[in-house]
Amino acid sequence: MAEFLTDIRTIRERARKEIGKGPVTDAYGADLGRVIQVLNEALATEIVCTLRYKRHYYTATGLYAEPVAAEFLEHAGEEQQHADRLAERIVQLGGEPDFNPDTLTERSHAEYDASLDLIKMIKEDLVAERVAIAAYTEIAQWLGDGDPTTRRIFEDLLAQEEEHADDLRGLLERLPASAKS
User: What structural domains does the chain harbor?
Assistant: First the structure.
């Protein structure tokens, strides 16, 4: 049987002594305050993306709008799920999720878009997904082994953001040339 690096009695004593810290133990290796800040920035990103996709869903018009709008609605729901996961993790780590609407766009990695042109909507959503992909890749790498749970959350979100980007690229490729001009 493998030995613990820290004596189990010491681990038990620390667990009792610092019970108020919940899941954050001495083994936590990341900068907790900075992790919570990064999580709140990602939360703002997901909320802005949810709002952008919802706007695009409701305002998409034209001959090719129906399947594109359906994709927007699906992505909006998934972005909301991402926001929920991030808010839950912030609370687990002892932080407070920041839902302040006055500062959402300042804290968000992605931008809000109010386009009315269907192709521009798709392109702006694709840009936002690419921004999230780049940011979440960096965050997962930065977290490394310091906070494996948060890193896995970002890796899960990253996989879905890559799927969204692929979906949007596919929409652009499938639209006829006449819709793109």
Answer: 30-175 (1.20.1260.10)
In whole angstroms, how far apart are CA 139 and each of 20, 38, 82, 145, 156? Answer: 27, 8, 15, 12, 12
Q: Can you tell me the distance from the alpha carbon of 146 to that of 149, in angstroms, rounded to the nearest whole number?
A: 9
| Annotated binding-site positions | 46, 82, 129, 161, 164
Q: What is the mean pLDDT of residues 62-66?
A: 93
Q: If pLDDT is split at 50, 70 and 90, which confidence band does 2 have?
A: low
- Positions at the binding site for Fe cation: 46, 82, 129, 161, 164
84, amino acid identity: D
Per-residue pLDDT of 4-52, as tens digits, reads 577 888 888 888 888 888 888 778 899 999 999 999 999 999 999 999 9
Residue 95: CB atoms within 10 Å: 17
The burial of 43, by beta-carbon neighbours within 10 Å (0-12 exposed, 13-18 middle, 19 or more buried), is given as buried
